[in-house]
Amino acid sequence: MADEPKREGVDTGSKSPPVEERLPPQEILELDHVYEALDHPRRRYLCYTLLEDTRWTLTDLATKLAAWENDISEHAVTSDQRERVYVSLYHAHVPKLVDESIITFDDVTETITTAENAAQVLAALEGMGASLDSNQETHARSDMDDEER
Questions:
Q1: Which of 47, 100, 109, 137 is most deeply buried (CB count within 10 A of its CB)?
Q2: Cβ-count burial of 145 within 10 angstroms (0-12 exposed, 13-18 middle, 19+ buried)?
Q3: Nearest to 103 by CA among 141, 143, 65, 47
Q4: Could you tell me which residue, 144 or 21, shows the higher pLDDT?
């Protein structure tokens, strides 16, 4: 054993640092609402829209998301495409984001607005940029750029 040559790149004499030193800070691990929000592509699309405007009707949001998902303009979205997204948002994704205090939803006007945890989610989205999903980022940014011109 003592005569064995050392393997290059392998440190056989040192121990790994304690687990506590290898984990991210506890504050990061406790941001479950951020991870839950960004877990599903449709929720990421919804959160991207919040970077553009913090108030949306569910119909307008469904139209925008259907356009992104089908890589078409909002004017080309069919009623079937809009309806599929609308139902998914209404029954699954909006309630999830409401539960995580990222958005609020007014049942009467079917309007979505940002809530207390939205800032953290939006900051995470901006910080991650295209690393989440380059197509979503490209769609979101190009639509926002077109509207600013």
A1: 47
A2: exposed
A3: 47
A4: 21
Q: The tokens of 81 are what? A: 């495409």
Q: Are 25 and 72 in contact (CB under 8 A)?
A: no
Tokens in use for 43?
């929720």
Beta pairing partners, 113: 55, 104
Structure tokens, 28 = 């990061």
For the chain, the first-to-last Cα distance in angstroms comes to: 71
Q: For residue range 44-87, list pLDDT tens digits in order.
A: 889 989 988 999 999 999 999 999 999 999 999 999 999 999 99
In which band, very low, low, confident or very high, does the pLDDT at 33 lie, cut at 50, 70 and 90? confident
Is the separation of the CB atoms in 136 and 48 below 8 Å?
Answer: yes
| Angle between helices 134-148 and 58-70 in degrees, nearest 10 | 120
The pTM (predicted TM-score) of the whole model is 0.66
The length of the chain is 149
Q: How do strand 55-57 and strand 111-114 relate by DSSP bridges? A: antiparallel
